[in-house]
């Protein structure tokens, strides 16, 4: 599964209480200057969710010595070899804010013996596939935790809404 899809799956689970960008038509108006809890605007919700995903990854994968970026790279490469441009594209949403370096990440994964480079394409080694498989259970647990109590239909609707919001903002930035 692509890292963007994984993030959207987790984001989707946390955004269900939001209707569009702030409450529903039958809820009383809230003061825009003092939103709290689940009534904060979508930017707050998404940022807070990302922080929680990061700390949950640190907690559940940290003991195995795998960071969220390493997981995302291993997971991307588990689908097959990729060149630098493909990896950058797959991981860009995480690096645009955190200003992380693909070069450093690849150097680390190569040093661990998990990734090899051949003719400009990176791929997992047997040890990298084993590390990916070992981490996959913890990542599945993160997905379970984040989606608890969310029905399949709700999840699908939320994914649709998030996808449209992303498309709207990407088009506005073009």
Low-confidence stretches: 1-32
- The name of the CATH architecture is Orthogonal Bundle
Secondary structural class: mainly alpha
Question: Which CATH C-level class is it?
Answer: Mainly Alpha
**Helix-strand sequence:** HHHEHHEEHH
CATH superfamily caption? Winged helix-like DNA-binding domain superfamily/Winged helix DNA-binding domain
Number of strands: 3
Query: How many distinct domains?
Result: 1
Strand content: 5-15%
> What fold name stands as the CATH topology?
Arc Repressor Mutant, subunit A
Shape: globular
Mean pLDDT: 78
**CA radius of gyration:** 18 Å
Helix content: 55-70%
Protein described:
- A hairpin with a 2-residue loop joins strand 2 (115-118) and strand 3 (121-124).
- Helices cover 66% and strands 6% of the residues.
- It has a 3-stranded antiparallel β-sheet.
- The chain is globular and about 45 Å long.
- It has helices at 3-15, 42-62, 68-78, 84-98, 102-111, 126-147, 152-173; strands at 82-83, 115-118, 121-124.
- Residues 1-32 have low confidence and may be disordered.
- It has 174 residues and is mainly alpha-helical.
- The protein has one domain (3-26, 34-173): Orthogonal Bundle (Arc Repressor Mutant, subunit A), CATH 1.10.10.
- The longest helix is centred in the last third of the chain and has 22 residues, at 126-147.
